[in-house]
Design brief:
Radius of gyration: 18 Å
Largest sheet: none
Order of helices and strands: HHHHH
Shape: elongated
Distance between the termini: 21 Å
Number of helices: 5
Length: 83
């Protein structure tokens, strides 16, 4: 569950990273605007959306861990019961 959450939160940032210069040209940004907007504001916005989502998912996972079984609690369940 943690890996899936991390993938979802970070996947969109990794898709745009190699194309930042082309995106800046499409929006008509100069180099400074590209660095500020696409290198600063966009990642900050994704963090502001992703951090609360990660907190909610981790809280729900922790709350339902004992009932969820090995699929819901991942390696923690396996480590706790097979050591």
């Amino acid at each position: 569950m943690f890996s899936l959450t991390a993938f979802v939160v970070n996947s969109s940032q990794n898709l745009i990273a190699p194309w930042l210069s082309e995106v800046a040209v499409d929006f008509g940004f100069d180099e400074h605007q590209r660095d500020v907007y696409l290198g600063g504001y966009v990642p900050a916005a994704f963090y502001c959306m992703g951090a609360p989502a990660a907190i909610v998912v981790s809280t729900q996972l922790h709350r339902h861990r004992s009932r969820a079984g090995p699929l819901g609690s991942g390696f923690t369940h396996a480590a706790r019961h097979h050591t």
